[in-house]
Specification:
Shape: rod-shaped
Number of strands: 0
Distance between the termini: 151 Å
Structural class: mainly alpha
Strand content: under 5%
Number of domains: 2
Length: about 150
């Protein structure tokens, strides 16, 4: 009969393990729980292991990072960037302006060269046409209406 009571007490321990850990057992059940722990080494071991696992979980919860760490880190970086020395800014600004001017000059030169090449090609074609006309003895073009149909 003692084994049946012991078995019932062990199942009671297993069923109420969470309540005992959270200190939610009523006074008489808590006393029954602790009395059984004094008499049963298996249940004492189970409760001890459960408490050690719960302690590890509690420590891990305490180790969880602050949810606002990202915001604080970004704010810190921004504050450091705002504190950059003005000498660096004074150096960087003229360098950027110089590069912009050089880029504008090179771009303008390239565009002007393309336009000049186009005009040179057009001028060369016109000279070729004049040369061919003189070689073939072709007079300048005249308006056809005036040359063929003249009215007296």
């Amino acid at each position: 009969m003692h084994k049946t009571t012991l078995k019932t007490d062990c199942s009671f321990i297993r069923k109420n393990l969470f309540s005992y850990q959270e200190k939610q057992l009523p006074g008489d059940e808590k006393q029954k729980f602790e009395d059984h722990l004094h008499s049963c080494t298996d249940c004492t071991r189970i409760v001890s292991e459960f408490q050690s696992v719960a302690a590890i979980i509690d420590r891990k919860k305490a180790d969880s990072p602050n949810p606002f760490i990202q915001t604080r880190t970004i704010q810190k970086i921004e504050s450091v960037l705002e504190q950059t020395p003005p000498a660096f800014r004074k150096f960087l600004q003229p360098v950027m302006v110089s590069f912009s001017l050089i880029f504008a000059i090179v771009t303008g030169y390239s565009i002007a060269k393309q336009i000049d090449t186009t005009n040179t090609i057009s001028l060369t074609r016109q000279q070729d046409i004049e040369t061919m006309k003189s070689d073939l003895n072709i007079p300048d073009f005249t308006v056809e209406e005036n040359s063929f149909f003249t009215t007296p």
